[in-house]
Amino acid sequence: MVKHNTQTSLLNCIDLSNHDINQSVNLLKQACLDSGFFYVVNHGISQEFMDEVFAQSKKFFSLPQKEKMKLLRNEKHRGYTPVLDELLDPENQVHGDYKEGYYIGVEVAEDDPESQKPFYGPNRWPASDILPGWKDAMEKYHHQALEVGKAVGRIIALALDLDADFFDGPEMLGEAIATLRLLHYEGQTSDPSKGLYGAGAHTDYGLITLLATDNVSGLQICKDRDAKPQIWEDVAPLKGAFIVNIGDMLERWSNCVFKSTLHRVLGKGQERYSIAYFIEPSHDCLVECLPTCKSDSNPPKFPPIVCGDYLSRRYNDTHADLNVYKKQQV
């Protein structure tokens, strides 16, 4: 079992209002080489609006379980995920994660041919008479967070010696697979020695993740996943900031120059809310080793892969089969 050694990680802070782009690039590059995690501040989303989105999230999770189950996630990963639905670290967890969530993806009408793709389609929305203003707040946040993600993507491109707009094209973030996920940890106390976690140890699948949190700690990172014992470091919440981390797709793209970092959530007996925003390129994007990240002495380590196929496989590996819930409802 994982030993519970923890210290607090000191993360670099990227200020999106900083006019010295070289400073931002250097800070980000250092962060991605060191831990794969950093803070982003002055990102343009007001604190007032962030507070509103958190308040709306709480309203949903406060609904009776029967109401939430009416919005159970579908095959497209839209809607509600109950406690224990997701199992991120089967080797160390005895149950799924002690968290519930709600997925909101890119809204595409059912009659649009694009909706046939795995991660596009209509979202599942609570009825407006039950949660007035909820859909509007989430759609606005979805739009604003994507702009933050694109701004971070430009700094990442420069840090990898690419053109600043490398990730901006239509096949990349111009038609991004962007997924907003509201999360609620009910207040259980995690115990790694017993295999009980708020969220099991995992790396994120995609390009980057923007995480907004309340002021309750719980997130931990492990910079060296192969160390024995693993050393886990707490990531402190920072008011008004996003905690940003890079995912496995960027690790593949960069030929392991930038590494995605193992992270988990340990419940401390307090209720905790967070909002994760996962950003990946379009379904059809071919992820292959970047020209600036390979050489004769460092050839590509991964074969090219199409983004949509890769993501579908990763999601299906970690979520419960939906038939489990059908059996429960019989």
TrEMBL record:
Superkingdom, natural source: Eukaryota
A Gene Ontology molecular function term of the record: dioxygenase activity
UniProt entry keywords in alphabetical sequence: Iron, Metal-binding, Oxidoreductase
Transmembrane portions of the chain: none
Pfam family, one: 2OG-FeII_Oxy
Residue ranges occupied by any Fe2OG dioxygenase domain in the UniProt entry: 176-281
Family: Belongs to the iron/ascorbate-dependent oxidoreductase family.
UniProt-recorded name of the protein: Putative aminocyclopropanecarboxylate oxidase
